[in-house]
Amino acid sequence: MLLIGEIAKLAGVTPRTVRHYHRIGLLAEPERTAGGYRSYGMSALSRLLQIRKFTALGMGLGEVADALADTGAVDLREILTELDAELAEGESEIQRRRAVIARLLEHGDDPTLSPELAAAVRGLDLPQSEIGILRAAEVALPELVDSYLTGAGRESPWQGWDLKMAALADTGANDPRVEEIAGELYAMLPGLLPTDVPAELTADQTATVAATARFGQMMLTDMSPGQRRAMELLVEYGRREPERWGQ
């Protein structure tokens, strides 16, 4: 007769594992000694070895219980065939991941970007803030990513605007710089906005305008209180001069 520590050692498992098998009914409770200790025989050791072999193949404990059932209704070959298919699928996934890692190592791409976006920004030397915008926009506003990338890394008339907005990055809504910079931004708008806007937009143009509006709303969420207040002031200034904006 074997005690739990002895049978566990022979089967290559731990006593805790043996107790777990008892709790879930995978291994029958043995008789106990006069001192109250579990006492195991050869049949229990054989059962443990079977369980260990099946789990080593990747079978779940529920599948092991089915495979070891005495009903004769379980087709072990079918279980192993399904297990082989699962392992083949897992092997394919491992190969796919290795291919991705090889590409990342070859080009030094950001692994958190999609392959398409990583290839598009490769060599552009964009700041992390812009890459973060692209990472989110590719999922939330894919309509704008292509146009954004078209101008990425080039001189843009909006660079001066971005610098002024950046100056308000850590400001509160009541910071005295807010109103000053908002006035400077408002003065820049005529040179930044398109002047040849058609009276009626096409479906594609309407979709682009809607996407741009959503982009702006999302950007507002990340702005400091000072930056958001500056944007509110721009709207207020525009309402004071409706004729200037064709309204």
Annotation keywords:
single chain, 247 residues, mainly alpha, 12 helices
If you had to describe this structure to a student in words, what would you say it looks like?
The chain contains 12 helices and no strands. With 247 residues, it is mainly alpha-helical. The N and C termini lie far apart (95 Å).
What is the structure about, briefly put?
The protein is mainly α. It has twelve helices and no strands.
Helix amount: 55-70%
Shape: elongated
Largest sheet: none
Strand content: under 5%
Helix count equals: 12
Helix and strand element order: HHHHHHHHHHHH
Low-pLDDT parts are none
Q: What Rg, in angstroms, do the CA atoms define? A: 33 Å
Task: Produce the secondary structure layout.
Elements: H1 4-11, H2 15-23, H3 42-56, H4 61-67, H5 76-107, H6 115-121, H7 128-140, H8 142-151, H9 159-166, H10 176-192, H11 203-222, H12 225-240
